[in-house]
Amino acid sequence: MNKNEFLYLQQEDVIKAGALDMPFVLEEAELTLKRWAQGIVKNPTKVSMRLPDNDHEQSFFVAMPAYIGNEQDSSTHLYGAAGMKWAAESISNVSSRLPRGIDMLLVSDPNTCLPVAFMEASLITAMRTAASAALGAKYLSRKDSKTACIVGAGIVGRLLISAVTCAMPALEQIYVYDLNYETAKSVVAEKEYPGVKVEAVPSLPEATGKADVVITATSARKPFLEYGWLQKNATVVQMGPTDIKDEVLLNANKVVVDNWYQVSGFYLSPVHKLYEAGFIKQEETPELRFIVDGQVPGRESEDDFVAYCSLGLASMDIAIGYKIYENALTKGIGVTLPVWDAPKWL
Ligand SMILES: NC(=O)c1ccc[n+]([C@@H]2O[C@H](COP(=O)([O-])OP(=O)(O)OC[C@H]3O[C@@H](n4cnc5c(N)ncnc54)[C@H](O)[C@@H]3O)[C@@H](O)[C@H]2O)c1
What we know:
Elements: E1 5-9, H1 11-16, H2 22-37, E2 41-42, E3 47-53, E4 56-68, E5 81-90, E6 104-108, E7 115-120, H3 122-140, E8 147-151, H4 155-167, E9 173-177, H5 181-189, E10 197-200, H6 204-209, E11 213-216, E12 235-238, H7 246-250, E13 254-257, H8 260-265, H9 270-276, H10 288-292, E14 306-309, H11 314-331, E15 335-338
Parallel strand pairs: 1-7, 8-9, 8-11, 9-10, 11-12, 12-14, 13-14
Antiparallel strand pairs: 1-15, 2-4, 3-4, 4-5, 5-6, 6-7
């Protein structure tokens, strides 16, 4: 590729370059958390815009920048990639047979600032969301965890089955619940999961009562997961922003977040509400990256009840997008496009 060109990858290209390879995505997501904890990744808080306004949402846009350095990083020459994901969701797409989430991702050279790749990123979003939840479950759950319950069988929910089986190979049973039982049944029937029993269930309290780990990824607009439905030493992972009731967090021995400023600043998050009311304190709410990197403890007792709340990390998107770009270059996938023939002014 010439310096004035970048690689364009449509969704099919992104798949060919590895976007649906769960072990690859999990490895990149985990490495990104470690590198961020070590200070060689930058993950500023995302900026969001709801249209026409917060109370009448039709469309939702989010700008998510990040810088992925590596161990050679220095202040004079930058390694790795800078980038931004432009994530969007449209409510009306559901009735017009378009995906609700439409994400695009730009990768730039961190030194010249030239674009090197632009790609479709909704699969990267869904895969890294499932990976992030699975990492939360892996690092925060009891060592003897055998049963998980996935709540919400949408795009993220179906990928969560692969993510948790991959990240937690000792799991023996996974329950999948959705408000629409038929959806849960069809998602479970989509694939074989060797070594683990995966079952769609019609009752949420019954399934959560048997689960060591409960992961929620629903499109619910109102909190529904109750503390009384859960085991007293369970791990709860919340990926949908409004899935869990405040009482779940109020009863937790430890609340962990993916990014404190994002989660505590988001008006729909229960962490935000409880932080504003003085029930949750920043110094008692570690970010998962420091637990993954071994800098702070996660679960401190097998009797603890632990919750992890996530709103999503741009650094995971950009790290995975950058690897996809590298894979695509090696395999000759994608189309090169010019930024200019010659820049008009220097
Ligand atoms: N934290 C993150 O990093 C991150 C990233 C992307 C998406 N998300 C969130 O994850 C959630 C799921 O995303 P998706 O793309 O899979 O959505 P989706 O629309 O594909 O699926 C959502 C599913 O939730 C089900 N559902 C709705 N209310 C429910 C309830 N009360 N109980 C059980 N099931 C219910 C729906 O029937 C649907 O099958 C969304 O809230 C999304 O905003 C989080």
